[in-house]
Amino acid sequence: xxxxxxxxxxxxxxxxxxxxxxxxxxxxxxxxxxxxxxxxxxxxxxxxxxxxxxxxxxxxxxxxxxxxxxxxxxxxxxxxxxxxxxxxxxxxxxxxxxxxxxxxxxxxxxxxxxxxxxxxxxxxxxxxxxxxxxxxxxxxxxxxxxxxxxxxxxxxxxxxxxxxxxxxxxxxxxxxxxxxxxxxxxxxxxxxxxxxxxxxxxxxxxxxxxxxxxxxxxxxxxxxxxxxxxxxxxxxxxxxxxxxxxxxxxxxxxxxxxxxxxxxxxxxxxxxxxxxxxxxxxxxxxxxxxxxxxxxxxxxxxxxxxxxxxxxxxxxxxxxxxxxxxxxxxxxxxxxxxxxxxxxxxxxxxxxxxxxxxxxxxxxxxxxxxxxxxxxxxxxxxxxxxxxxxxxxxxxxxxxxxxxxxxxxxxxxxxxxxxxxxxxxxxxxxxxxxxxxxxxxxxxxxxxxxxxxxxxxxxxxxx
Length: 463
Ligand code: GDP
Description:
Blueprint: E1 6-9, E2 16-24, H1 28-35, E3 36-38, E4 51-58, E5 64-73, E6 84-91, H2 93-105, E7 109-110, H3 115-122, H4 128-139, H5 143-153, H6 156-180, H7 191-210, H8 212-220, E8 222-227, H9 234-245, E9 261-266, E10 269-274, H10 283-300, E11 303-309, H11 316-324, E12 330-335, H12 345-351, E13 361-363, H13 372-386, H14 399-420, H15 425-443, H16 449-456
Parallel strand pairs: 1-7, 8-10, 8-11, 11-12, 12-13
Antiparallel strand pairs: 1-2, 2-6, 3-4, 4-5, 5-6, 9-10
Guanosine-5'-diphosphate binds at residues 228, 230-236, 279, 335-336, 338-339, 365-367.
């Protein structure tokens, strides 16, 4: 276990109303007592848990650094499960730095990213899927993704996984009793029960796996690309979307630095708008990125906004794109309807067999019209794939979880087949244990240390 005491600045650095230095571990209260002088002159060590004291932060020479509040939470009833003290200072960079320095000088160690949450996990306060939900809450971009993360933190996924594990444990007990005491008077394994439970769990796991695509979309956003020949209005569209719907985020997980991605919040669904071919960039940036690269983005996109210009004749490039994108999830943006039309809009494309009538298309002037009809069209297209989210209470948002479920399912299918073929029970037992192990990876019971380290490394310091 860990017997050292850790500390970090838990709030963002910069000017703010308050800034918090968080200390956790066996020495937390003792260390806090040396930097914090309570106005009532009492020691924090004598305070019960969940107490707030008003006082001053002082350096070892007795010089006052700041006025502050000290919040005392005693283990195991704290975030980490250990004694925790939060020193709430004024939120200035220098004040917080100095306070932290004094705390470190008194024997605390600077916390690694996510170490507070990692301790909560290792102390059994939360399981691994809940710890991951903490990262997701911090990074949520829209109301919907936040809801999902909160549900996961509250244990919606953990409970589902646990229910699978309990059913499988029952089978393991039966199978192993039959293996260990073949001659004893133990009731034969009931074949029907065994098959029924395995089939049921396989079905439930499959349903959970099926939520993964939606979950990932809500966590990471729908990768959206605007395409179309030059001058049709791509950057006009990009700019209007960003001006009217930009989500307040700066950091997107998984974003490579060589592309510009902006996050839009449209009706609570996050859209990651990839600026292909650097629509907003200078000419040399376009050069840098290259046409091939732009095509790659189109290939990877979840949603394509294909812009066409109704004031100019359709050209080879328009036709090529219409054809190339035929199977993709796309919305046609038929732009510049304020100018004289050179072709007849969606109806004429359908008539000329260039477009399936079911493909959503919006005729618009990006210069003059409201974006509302276009946004509605985009949302309803995306929602078609998302509808079941409302009904499922646990949703898979991470590929790590999905992978573990897929492997657990494969083990169970193997076990079921082995059982149906009447092969030795030892073989069935192997499949059951394998599945239990994979399910345990999600909640953290059977996960390897290096994976745990990788997960917590995604956190910010102080969390
Ligand atoms: P891009 O090359 O596809 O990114 O196209 P732009 O967004 O740069 O637009 C090309 C030109 O068309 C610009 O001068 C825009 O102001 C103009 N434009 C864009 N949308 C409309 C529209 O709906 N009506 C009119 N009249 N002009 C537009």
